[in-house]
Structures are given as structure tokens and as C-alpha cells.
Design brief:
alpha/beta; Rossmann fold; six-stranded mixed sheet; 24 helices; disordered C terminus; CN hydrolase domain-containing protein; C-N_Hydrolase_sf
Length: 668
């Protein structure tokens, strides 16, 4: 059976256009003999469930579009698998629709209903179906599905749902094969594996592409390019050896390269969604703004990028004047290197007050007003240029900006989208080095730790300025964070934001617990301001869009102060131990009462009973056992044969034959 994978990039939710594109891909696949076409996950409803999946009319339009598509595909004699997020029984579900013979079948819902009717509790194991004698199974988790697949499957079709995460190689599809991903599943279960990887940007999520087909020996026999659209067609032949792609010919995951290309395709799709094919941004001579301009050139071409430089006037000191000339020179060198257009504007003299007070720890309220006025002026300049050029306003804010000083960052580098908003500042140095290997673009002076430190100092100054109403905190922020290295700050932020580690587990806490606590305080305080900042393409384990905390949250992580962490499992175990302890005490009490009752009936003293309950006591009794047996035999005789105190018989209604000839301990 020949399988086809349509690695296509479409506008999210454009149902008619997507169905038409799928039909075109099906026609091309049919010409090559394909019998099954697979499409990516996020085309119709995005990369994650959301309110759109709850809309009854959206689901109606989606099913109507798929029904019409199924009728047209029936004429081509080809089936198709179309995944999409839907709402079912009050919960979100990633459904897979099988378009075959003119019909639309929701495979996961159909399978769940059948198993529920049969009383099977495992409702969501991978659905399985046949195409031309090839038994196909569908999964959204290739690593775990191998244990859930029923026996006899020939092909596992893995639909990648998670977007690009530069900290996890497996999100890069075929580029992760050399790192040991996917291959063990195919080899262990001895089945073919088809990976359907999306490409492009969908509602802030970025996908790298790289779909592939792997045989049952773990060899990649066909692969689509990364970050490009493609139609992959491959014949699935069980039990035969087919030509494969050697490992050294496969793409290899490189964090900086995949980050750069992922941001590029995400930026292009964001501009397309806004109806733009150009970009405009503010150039301030820093590493982030210079690298953002380079990214825009790679995404749109140099003729479609406009840079804005706002010169500061009214310099008060020779040092300020020299710094301004150096900044302007860096911007002009960058513009000449990238061959983009430059628009220059001059800031009013009020900005001189801003320059004069940049070195101060606590900035008074009037100076903060000057900063806001200056930022607003830059925003107006950029809006005018973007409107005139019909361009997308791009911001060069980083994830470090978003974390520490979002209140002061929104207007300092304005824009509609911030491609580096999910990338920490220190990572940009490595990305710039990688990009410069393909052609010198970013000035060498900016690709250095010194440039990173200079930009971070500006972030810390903005964070301190926001505490002007509380001078003590302003001084603490400037002093505590100003002495840290950029790598220390970004590592602590990544551990807290991306990995969700508490204060006690941050790498910075062991050496600078005060600075770590201040970082977390700044992150919590900026929650409301971050929501007003430009949109961000998500390329990390956890973007701020996914991490949104309540705006009015009063709690702040201050650490455990040496106490052991409390969790639900610990509380549950403690409750179980308490219940077991109460049960043991109750059992001991019941045993004691029963033994006391038996002892009173058989004439055994409490001291003897206590001695008999332990091994040591039984050893001490030793020679007294025959005498004790005689005592028990007499008690049994009186109990069961009806002996009375005055020698008369018939006093015991339960009298019966005595078990004579057997010792008490042998009977019990």
C-alpha cells in the first residue's frame, strides 16, 4: 500500500481553502499510486484545544466541508486521514476523521462508543483500520503507543501534535532520528512508522516539518524537508528490504538552527495572517534589534524590510554624545550589511533627561513619564511607517524582557509581534553566531557577552525604575541583579518559567537566594503587563502564553525555608498509615478480649495468656505445659460434660462428647 503525507502550511481554520488544498494533494498522490493521504494536525482548529472547538457552528462547517471533500476523494479512489480538535461530551478531544468511499468516520469516537457498549474500560486505545490489506494504527504519542497497539499491526501512523520545542529534539521529527528517537518503537514492534509532521505557524505555535516513513528495521526510507511544504509518497512493503536514507544523509537537530528557521516561518505566517508581506522595526543598535532585522530579511527579503532609527538630541555630556554617535554608526553598518531601507527620525530634547538619568538606581516619577513619552513617540513613528509601507510592525523584545520588565518594555521597542519573545537574551548570542556563519549580518561587536550584558543592564534599570514608588525595592533590584551574570539570570528564569521549578530548586538559590527571590517577584508582578505586549511565537517548553498566572495573584514563592516539601501523595500515605495504625490497635484489642474470654472459660490466668502470646514466654513456660494441659482438660470436661460445682450433672446444656486423648495444644 502506498501512503502519502501532505506536509502543507495553510491559514488556520480556512475550511474551504484547506479542503481544496487537500483535494489537490490527493490528486497528486493518486497520480503516484497512493491509497491513503494523511494531513497535519493543526490545519483546521489549531495546535491546542480552545473555544473554537466548542463552537457548534464551527463543528458543523468542519463536518460539512469534510463530507464534501470525502465525496470528491471517492472519485479519485483514495482515502484520507484528517485530524482536528473537537469537543465531545464536555471535553476536548483530538479526533481523526477517515474520509473513505464518500463517507466521514470519526475513528476515535466510533471506537469509544463500540468499546463502551461492550463494557471495555480502555476506551481510547489507538484505532486500527485496513487499507488494501495493510493494518494501520493511529497514535498521537509515538513513544507510548508501542505498548498499546493491538497485535498484528503493519503500520503505525503518528500525527505530531506538539509544536517545536528547541529543548526537545523529538519535536523536530526526522531530525531527531539520529538522536535515538522513533527508531526503538519501530524495531521493538516490528512495524512501519509514518510520522506526519506539520510545518509553519499556527496561532503562536511553530512547527518544523520533517515528516518521514520508517520501515520495520528502523531505517528511514523517505523523508520530507524541514521548514518546507512537501508531498511525500512511499510504498509500505512488509517483509521486504527497500532502499533507505543513510543516517549521515538525514538532517541533524541543531538548537540554534531550528530556532532560527522556526522563528522565520512563524514570522512569515503571522504576517500572512495580517495580510502583510513586509516588516518594519525599530533599530536601536542592540543585539536583539540587529538580529530581529536579520530575521526579517531572511523571512521577507531585504527589499521588504524597513528599519527605523530614532536619534536622541540634546546630549548633555561628551560621553553621551560619543555613545549616541557609536549607536548610530552600528545601526548604519547593519543597514548597509543587510541592504534594507532606513528611516531616521529625531527625538525631542526631552529625551536628554532620560539619557542623563539612565545610570540612577531609583528613577523619580517625572523621569518615568519622560520614558513613557519617548516610547510613545517611537510607537507613533513606527506605526506611521508600517501604515505607509503596509508592513508588519516587529518588536525585538526577548523573553528576558517579558519576564523582568514587561511594564517598561511595551513602548521601548514597539511592534505587533515579538519573534524573540520566547527566547532568552543569552541564547541570542549563539543564534547570531550561527546566522553569521551563513553570511556576516550582525556586527561582530554585538555578538559578544559584553553586548548581552549591556542590554541586560537596560532591562534591570527598567525593572528598578518601576519600583520608584518603593525606593527600597528599587535599590534592592538594582544591587542584587546588577551583580549577576546574564547566564545566571536566564538560567534561573528558564528553570522557573519553562520547567516550573520552585524557588528552593532554582540553580541560583544555592548561592544567591535573595536575587532568586527578587527574580520570581518581578516575574509575578509583570503578569498583567505581559498580556498587553506583542504576540509571541512559542518555541520553548513553556511560553508565557501557556504559563499565564492570575493577574490578581497575591501569593509569591518565598521558598520552604528548609522544610520538606508537602505534596498530595505524602498526605495520602500519612492517612493510610494512620488508618493501618488504628486497625492494628483495634485488632490487638479484639484479640486481647477474645483471649481473655477464652482464658476465663478454660481457667488460664491473664499472666499465662500474656506469656503464651510471645515466643520468649512460651519458652519460659516450657516445663509447665503438661500441668497447663491438665488444667485445660479439666476445664473442657466441666464445660462440655456438664460438671457442676456440687457434683451434679446436667448443668451444661451444651454438653457433648469430650475430645479426650488429644492434648490441647495439638488440637489448636
Amino acid at each position: 500500500m502506498k501512503i502519502a503525507i501532505a506536509q502543507i502550511d495553510m491559514r488556520l481554520g480556512d475550511i474551504d481553502a484547506i479542503c481544496a488544498r487537500i483535494e489537490d494533494q490527493a490528486a497528486l498522490a493518486h497520480e503516484q499510486g497512493a491509497r491513503l493521504l494523511c494531513t497535519p494536525v493543526p490545519l483546521f482548529s489549531g495546535a491546542a484545544p480552545g473555544p473554537i472547538a466548542e463552537s457548534a457552528n464551527f463543528l458543523h462547517d468542519l463536518l460539512a466541508g469534510l463530507s464534501g471533500l470525502a465525496m470528491r476523494l471517492a472519485q479519485l479512489d483514495i482515502a484520507a486521514l484528517v485530524p482536528a480538535f473537537v469537543a465531545h461530551q464536555g471535553a476536548y478531544m483530538l479526533e481523526v476523521f477517515l474520509l473513505k468511499d464518500g463517507n466521514v468516520s470519526p475513528l476515535r469516537t466510533l471506537l469509544a462508543i463500540r468499546r463502551e457498549q461492550a463494557g471495555d474500560e480502555d476506551l481510547w486505545t489507538p484505532p486500527v483500520f485496513d487499507v488494501d490489506g495493510v493494518r494501520c494504527a493511529i497514535t498521537f504519542d509515538a513513544e507510548r503507543a508501542g505498548e498499546l497497539l493491538p497485535p498484528g499491526c503493519d503500520l503505525m501512523i503518528y500525527f505530531q501534535a506538539g509544536s517545536l520545542d528547541v529543548s526537545r529534539a523529538e519535536t523536530s521529527a526526522v531530525a531527531a532520528v539520529q538522536d535515538g528517537h522513533f527508531r526503538p518503537v519501530a524495531v521493538k514492534r516490528s512495524l512501519w512508522l509514518a510520522c506526519v509532521a506539520p510545518v509553519g505557524g499556527f496561532d503562536g505555535a511553530v512547527y518544523a516539518g520533517g515528516s518521514f516513513v520508517m520501515d520495520d528495521c528502523g531505517r528511514v526510507v523517505a523523508a520530507s524537508p524541514c521548514f518546507e511544504e512537501d508531498l511525500l509518497v512511499q510504498d509500505v512493503q512488509r517483509g521486504t528490504t527497500v532502499p533507505c536514507i543513510e543516517d549521515h544523509e538525514l538532517p541533524h537537530f541543531d538548537r540554534s538552527e531550528w530556532l532560527w528557521d522556526g522563528l522565520r516561518v512563524g514570522l512569515v505566517d503571522a504576517a500572512t495572517a495580517c495580510g502583510c508581506s513586509r516588516a518594519a522595526l525599530v533599530l536601536d543598535g542592540s543585539l536583539p534589534s540587529s538580529l530581529a532585522a536579520t530575521l526579517c530579511v531572511d523571512a521577507f527579503g531585504p527589499r521588504n524590510v524597513v528599519g527605523l532609527f530614532v536619534a536622541r538630541s540634546g546630549m548633555r555630556t561628551p560621553a553621551q554624545d560619543a555613545a549616541e554617535r557609536e549607536r548610530a554608526e552600528r545601526v548604519r553598518d547593519l543597514v548597509a550589511s543587510l541592504h534594507i531601507r532606513l528611516v531616521e527620525r529625531t527625538e525631542p530634547d526631552c529625551a536628554a533627561l532620560l539619557d542623563r538619568d539612565e545610570s540612577r538606581i531609583a528613577v523619580p516619577g517625572d523621569d518615568a513619564a519622560v520614558r513613557r513619552a519617548s516610547a510613545h513617540l517611537a510607537q507613533l513613528f513606527l506605526d506611521d511607517i508600517a501604515h505607509a509601507e503596509h508592513a508588519l510592525p516587529v518588536s525585538s523584545l526577548t523573553k528576558t524582557d517579558y519576564a523582568l520588565a514587561p511594564e517598561g518594555a511595551g513602548g521601548s521597542l514597539p511592534g505587533q509581534i515579538a519573534p524573540f519573545g520566547d527566547v532568552y537574551l543569552t541564547a541570542l548570542e549563539f543564534v547570531a553566531r550561527m546566522r553569521n556563519r551563513a553570511g556576516a549580518a550582525v556586527p561582530a561587536a554585538l555578538v559578544s557577552l559584553r553586548a548581552v550584558k549591556s542590554y541586560l543592564d537596560g532591562i534591570i534599570r527598567r525593572a528598578a525604575a518601576l519600583e520608584a514608588s518603593r525606593p527600597y525595592y528599587a535599590v534592592r533590584v538594582a544591587e542584587a541583579l546588577g551583580t549577576l551574570e546574564p547566564s545566571q539570570i536566564d538560567a534561573a528564569l528558564e528553570a522557573h518559567i519553562d520547567c516550573d521549578l520552585p524557588l528552593d530548586d532554582l540553580p541560583l538559590t544555592a548561592t544567591r537566594s535573595d536575587a532568586a527571590a527578587l527574580l520570581l517577584m518581578l516575574v509575578r508582578r509583570g503578569e498583567a503587563a505581559r498580556r498587553a505586549l506583542p504576540l509571541v511565537p512559542a518555541v520553548s517548553a513553556r511560553s508565557f502564553g501557556e504559563r499565564a498566572w492570575p493577574v490578581d495573584l497575591a501569593w509569591s514563592d518565598l521558598g520552604r525555608h528548609g522544610a520538606d516539601p508537602l505534596d498530595l501523595a505524602g498526605l495520602a500515605r500519612a492517612a493510610i498509615e494512620r488508618a493501618e495504625s488504628r486497625g492494628e490497635a483495634l485488632s490487638a484489642r479484639v484479640r486481647g478480649e477474645i483471649m481473655g474470654l477464652v482464658g476465663s472459660l478454660l481457667g488460664i490466668t491473664p499472666e499465662q495468656l500474656e506469656a503464651m502470646s510471645t515466643e520468649e514466654g512460651r519458652q519460659q513456660l516450657g516445663g509447665q505445659l503438661p500441668q497447663l494441659e491438665d488444667q485445660v482438660q479439666r476445664a473442657l470436661h466441666d464445660l462440655f460434660e456438664g460438671g457442676s460445682a456440687d457434683g451434679e450433672e446436667g448443668g451444661n446444656p451444651f454438653a457433648g462428647p469430650a475430645a479426650r486423648g488429644f492434648s490441647f495444644f495439638s488440637q489448636n
